[in-house]
Amino acid sequence: MRFATQRLMLCAAFALATALPMAAQADATWTASACISNCAESGDPAPNVSYSAYSAAINTTNGAYVSTGTFAASTLAFYSGGGFGVTAPSGDAQSPNHALDNYGYQDLILLKFDDLVKLTQVKIGWSQYDSDISVLAYTGNTSGVNVASTITGKTASTLTGSGWSLVGSYADLVTGTNKAVNSQGVSSSWWIITAYNSQLGGAPTGADGTTSGLTRGLGTSYAGYDFVKLYSVSGTATTTRQNVPEPATLALSAMALLGVAGVRRQRRQRQGERAQD
User: Fold this and answer.
1) Where is the signal peptide (predicted)?
2) 247-276 vs 2-19: helix axis angle to the nearest 10?
3) pTM of the full structure
């Protein structure tokens, strides 16, 4: 009797386990396309992403880069084969300024996922002059927070005081080649990809105006400025997969649980009969 009860309980546990939600991790790649809102990735099921752009005017003194102004919503543009670029409010539509760049305006692209994602790679589909980027993750509390309020009105140097953290700055990305990022393994729902800006952190490793290492432009020409188009990001998404119980699974669970109850009821009856004898 004891072994019969144990078998029934194991059957019930197995059936219920297959019916409960399960946590899963899946590698995925989100590729730029004409879609900018609730865009799906290629690969296994994972969170969707929405893209948006912001720009801030770059302040210069005597033709040299000094700092950035405050960010405001900008225009995200998709270029087939290249990826996403950004067109700032004025004087920024021509090539190469319509890229994700730091010449005239500091441009950034916000990736807003509907679940936690650990980014691992960034790929650009086009670059000119230089190709350094910075990657930030939002590490503050997202509950009840409008993501636009963490960017709009902020400067490059104050973003990190509004919940954003620098994940890393990466030099000389190669078009069409994945660049490994986020060696710390940070997970976040909100990510920023931007042309390199030393105000965000990450000390320059090359001379201003050069194209080797993390460098800044000099303000007098395109030399040393970064112009890229964001082609894709890859990473690991932690999702909750809701397994809908099939009728057979539910029936098995119910039968197993009823069997356990019946066995226990019979045992109590027999114990009562023996007590009366």
Assistant:
1) 1-26
2) 150
3) 0.78
Contact 48, 189 (CB under 8 A): no
**CA 110 – CA 54 distance, rounded (Å):** 8
Query: Which residue in 106, 67, 53 sits closest to 199, CA to CA?
Result: 67
Per-residue pLDDT 10s for the chain (277 aa) are: 444 445 544 444 444 444 444 444 558 999 999 999 999 998 777 899 999 999 999 987 766 677 889 999 999 999 999 999 999 887 788 889 999 999 999 999 999 999 999 999 999 999 999 999 999 999 998 899 999 999 999 999 999 889 999 999 999 999 999 999 999 999 999 999 999 998 998 889 999 889 999 998 887 789 899 999 999 999 998 754 433 344 444 444 444 444 545 545 666 665 555 555 5
What distances in angstroms separate CA 136 from CA 24, 96, 173, 233, one per listed residue? Answer: 25, 24, 17, 13
